Amino acid sequence: MALGIVLSPGLGRMTQAMPPNSRPDSGDQTAEILQNRTALSGGTLATVEKFTQTAFAQPLKNLDRKRRHVFAFGDHLFNTQWVQAPSSTAKLDGLGPLFNRSSCAGCHIRDGRGRPPLAHETRMLSKLVRLSIPGQNERGGPLPHPVYGGQFQEQGILGVAAEGKTQIQWAEEPGTFADGQSYSLRRPAMTS
Asked: What's the confidence (pLDDT) of residue 1?
């Protein structure tokens, strides 16, 4: 099983969005106006007013029922713990041969960004290392490493060696603001 994420060009367009309790065939003037505003920013229609630890896990409030089902399915995939094939749970097969974590949520804590290691930790549990060689691809992005690809994989399924292990060492760099107040920054140094 191959797993990928595809973003539909129409998902972010306001032509797909309706305010709550309105339908395009209901004669609702607001819905009609929104259908014609493709450049309307996310603003109040795409803002989720939730300030808890699960704020990033919420669907946009302007999604219709079909798009909410798509969101729920994507959220399910995001939180699925994949396993090495073959397994007794065939629907979860798909891990490896190389990987960093067994689920998207393993790195993206609470649907957000991974956190850097704490001062006493050296292994990165929810961050990754991007690899590239000099130059740019046709879109102006980095060129992936010809052997390792664009992302260093720290784990492998049974019988497949990981590409290696990365560690991070922190160097404290003190400094002083223009007003005389001192600060200290942590500069990461990667080793593998």
From this structure: 34
* Both structure tokens of 131: 């690899």
Cβ–Cβ under 8 Å, residues 152 and 131 = yes
Q: Residue 10: which residues within 8 A CB-CB, separation 6 or more?
A: 16
Q: Strand, coil or helix: what is 156? A: strand
Tokens standing for residue 13: 């367009």
Residue 163, φ and ψ in degrees, nearest 5: -70, -15
CB-CB contact of 103 with 79 (8 Å): yes
Does residue 173 contact residue 185 with C-beta atoms inside 8 Å? yes
- pTM for this one? 0.64
The backbone torsions φ and ψ at residue 68, rounded to the nearest 5 degrees and listed phi first, read -65, -35
CA angle 41, 44, 48 (to 5 degrees): 110
**Distance from C-alpha of 137 to C-alpha of 64, rounded to nearest angstrom:** 37
Ramachandran angles phi, psi of 187, nearest 5°: -105, 125
